Amino acid sequence: MTLPPFHLAFPVDDLAAARRFYGEAMGCAEGRSSDEWIDFDFHGHQIVAHLAPGQAGDRASNHVDGHGVPVPHFGLVLGMAEWEALANRLRAAGTDFVIEPTIRFRGQPGEQATMFLRDPAGNALEFKAFADIGQLFASQAPAPR
What does the alpha-carbon distance between residue 12 and residue 49 come to, in Å, rounded to a whole number? Predict the structure, then answer.
């Protein structure tokens, strides 16, 4: 199945910091830009950092497998090797993780590798991977902890 690329526009308070984070630290190619926004190629998806001071960051958190998950957040489901390479790249860059790279729901339906971090504007991102991609939409809810 071929998935269409998604488009996500999100607020940032500093375009130069967004360019460094998404372009350099995350390795996203830059597309079009202006004095108010920058397009990035986010693994084939179009994300756009829009200058909107004071509008970025999470507003809540939900308890998931022993961690406070920031809401809202966005990210990608990567292959396990890609996820591990990204985790290593981010660690080497000195990233301050909200939730360190870990395995969530271990031994349960939907077991996944996950990590959460923030961009310089405070937007939360999650990157995850599954040893069994068939578990992406596992229908059995994880047991409460």
Answer: 6
Token pair of 106, please?
């271990």
**Could you tell me the pLDDT band of residue 142, with boundaries at 50, 70 and 90?**
very low
pTM: 0.87
Residue 136 phi/psi, 5° resolution? Answer: -55, -45
Sheet containing 97-104, strands listed edge to edge, beginning at the edge strand earlier in sequence: 73-78, 124-129, 112-118, 97-104
- How many other C-beta atoms are found inside a 10 Å radius of the C-beta of residue 119? 21
Q: What residues form DSSP beta bridges with 51?
A: 12
**Cis amide prior to 142 (ω within 30 degrees):** no
Instruction: Give the torsion through C-alpha atoms of 8, 14, 16, 20, to 10 deg.
Output: -60
What's the mean pLDDT in 76-82? Answer: 94
* Sequence ranges of the domains in the chain: 7-135
- Homologous superfamily (CATH) for 7-135: 2,3-Dihydroxybiphenyl 1,2-Dioxygenase, domain 1 (3.10.180.10)
